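Record 1 of the preview.
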Amino acid sequence: MIAPPARRGTGHAPCHHGEILQGVFLDATGRRCAGLVTLPMTGMGSRAEFTRLPGTPPEQLTVLPGARTKAARAAALTVVECARRRREPPCGGELRLTGDIPVGLGMGSSTSDVIAVVRAVADSYGVRLAPGTVARLAVRAELACDPLMLDGRPALFAQREGRVLEVLGPRLPPLVVVGCALGGGAPVDTLALPVPRYDESDVRAFERLRALLRRAVATGDAALLGQVASASAQQGQQLLCHPEFDALTGIGRRLGALGVQIAHSGAVAGLLLDPAAPGLRHRIRGCVRALDSNGIAATRVFTTFPPLPSFPPLPPIPSTQEFPSGPAHCGGHRPARPDTPRRPARLPAL
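->
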């Protein structure tokens, strides 16, 4: 009997640069739930290629590179989902992952892997999965996920439940972000952090920030967004305790930044600049020099809007910074080893 032909699918997912807002919010029923709004970043991402092998048992699933346990779990879950939709028996396959997202710095590397895998498996079946289904599979694969399946749309997302609490608008206000890495780029062990305990006054404060962010997105008010991001970063700093945080905020005030943002589960941070302000190139260079003089590694400059012909090229950061690696999300998902062919923990300068 001739075996059915192998069927190949591909998928891609972006990363993010930490959060604009993170805390505890009320859903439509008034129930509390953890939520966040990420700062999207283009240019880096995860790519997955899945070769479906019809007729093989579903447990016959190989993953390259190895030790990608969350990616493997996502593949198995998606095979079951897509096979059910196609009314076919689940089967095994071969999964290959590549990408360039730094690991363990709060940029969504684990979720990017998982979403790329879900999309690759679905593609091999010729199935298109809605973002809500992708989110549900991602949460089942890794217990909590980032909203990368929304492809940059600003939304308040319940990361532990895989659902959108509120779509804030079609796009963020235009910003230029001067990225950096706090703590020398060392990964943050989120499991070692104290569990935040929020009371009613905290929830009310987060809901006020949510309302302000909603208005900032609706009106394109970058300055208001910077205020929200700074307030959220200050709240997150109470748990993360980055020693350079005061220096970072001081640089922002001195050089006219709209605010700062951080990864609430990592080391990346950013100074938020108004692209319409005069002397933008000079201001960016000043931020990079000030970060360097305070021992903070500048990493890359990016924007929240697509490049426009009228927008001048951003000045490059002079050097590429290298940082030690660590397991993504501190779960042993992606151990840093010399034989791991995927990305070292670094943020290449533009």
